[in-house]
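Example record for the data management plan.
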Amino acid sequence: MFGADKGGVDANDTRMNGKKLKIGIVQARFNASVTDALALACKAELIALGVAEKDIDHITVPGALEVPVALQAMAEKANYDALVALGCIIRGETYHFELVANESGAAVTRVALDYQLPIANAILTTEDMPQAVARQEEKGRDAARVAVEMANLLESL
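Corresponding structural encoding:
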């Protein structure tokens, strides 16, 4: 939920240290103004968390339905500590919104479970463009924090 109490982790917590991590980002180009802002915020936060810029791989795909297959290809390379899914699906006048939102979300989760690899899902699903714009930077930063925290958590288990 936008503006929700997310139960933050202290900045000094070792789970938030990205120094030794390699992160892959898959960005859908559809609604590019929003997804570009998501990507910028995500990359900036990854760097702020200590992930080296050279250890961030960023690719783009046409839309949200193409994100999971690119995530799967990256997961198969087995050299990422976490992945990030970025996209923006805005409700229209047809059932297409539900199809894209549900299928892309389920597929991202399936890739994460199949490869036991954390994937921060920041594919926005909003009613309109103003809602998407209001969330783009916060959700981009959130995705970076989730990727780093979950990569470190899984490494420690």
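Summary line stored alongside the record: The first strand starts at residue 23 and ends at 28.
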